[in-house]
Fold:
Amino acid sequence: MWTLLALICLSLALLGIAGLQFTYLFYPDRIHKERKKLILKLESECRRLTTRLREAEARITEQDEILLKIYPETSEEVWADVIDER
Structure:
């Protein structure tokens, strides 16, 4: 009787250990998939921000050209002084 009870407890313990091992096997796979999704999201965001940066740089260049046409005698140093005064 006690032998049968001991064997049942041992088998349940081994079943629990096997369950933990299976859980551990699936965990890295899930983490890998989540990281892959995150990388794709970050790459997409990087492309979007790169586009915005290029547009902003083009706009700044365009504004600098307009300012040079309006005030050809000024330089960046003068604008720095104007900004500091405000």
About this structure: The chain has one domain: 2-85. Residues 2-85 form one domain.
